[in-house]
Give the backbone structure.
Amino acid sequence: MHSVDLKKTSTSVRTIRFDDGRLKIEDIVDIAEGSASVALSEASQFRSAIARGAAFLDRLLREEGTIYGVSRDAPTGSGLYFCCFAEICAD
């Protein structure tokens, strides 16, 4: 994740851009406290990756009926892996 820093003053809010980068704990705190807004990257490669991932999950949900949590493959960024956080049902 990359932040587009505006000087932090009482009237300015920085934007955290979700992209191929990593979030810092400070980013999460600022988002939670309302001192930062969020936006998806406009990069076509990033948007295509999101669309492919969503299509894959939609297909998996249709075929299997249940997904047990999804996260990005953090070490390589090459794909998705599954773990048991929460059940997502088609209903």
